[in-house]
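Two records follow; treat each independently.
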Amino acid sequence: MAPPRVVAGTAGGGFTAIPVRFSARSRASRHLFVKPHRVREAADRRRPQDRTLFVLNLPPYITQECAHRLFSQCGPVTSVELQEKPGTGSKSEKQKSKFFSGPSAQNFRVAYVVFKKPAGVKAAVSSKRREPWVLSPSDHPIKTGLQNIAQLRKKFEEDKQRIALLRAERKFKPY
């Protein structure tokens, strides 16, 4: 059974789907799900209700600077806060195990984007423009794991050539 196809525009739960691509050359696209941020408690000064956008499904390689640049298309951005899970962010939700201290898995994240004016939230939620946003434009590329592997592979090949050259000159002594 094929997964459900997400169409740009309104999604379930009051969210709006914004199509995004990793680069201009990418054919595959993902969707960010956005809606105005509403809180039940007293107003949070860091996240004013009328100027804060709640964003779901941010890829793990997105930085605060990248999210800031991405949502600046909708209006001037005051701040961007990335989190693993929705919440206030003031309490530490991670419990460390005394037996396992390895790196945690990077999952898709959520963000709270605060605009200078309420019009920024309205522009982000409006479903008029739905060309896919580019996450890694050529002027601000994002470094992913695959690019790091390619750089390491290139350095490895250069080192192999240096070793071959030293062997040819008989200056290579492995022990």
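The next record belongs to a different protein.
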Amino acid sequence: MHCNFARGDSRLSNSVRHTKVMTLSSQVLRCQDIEMLSLDLHGLLEKCPDVSEEQLVRLLALRGDVPRAHVRDTVAHVRASRQPPRAPPHPALPRLFKDITFNDRLLAHFTL
């Protein structure tokens, strides 16, 4: 996942960027109001525009309390309403989710 934190500040370490992405992801998981999930997803997409639709669906599926149809609808709505990036991504910033793949056999117990 390519992230737009601290654009232009090369002193910011990758571990700090990773921590910020994990914080955004945890906000999605901790959100108490299912209807407010889209705001947290917008924040995650703003900072990490290359996160895939499938990764967002899987993240929401980890919650276990969101109906599958609502997950797909929410992710589709958030991605469709996303503003185009203001500037091209900085090549030095890490792409955290770029190489994440899913083993469906491992995740079979999650309701997707």
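Discussion point: The chain has a mean pLDDT of 76. How would you locate this feature using only the token line?
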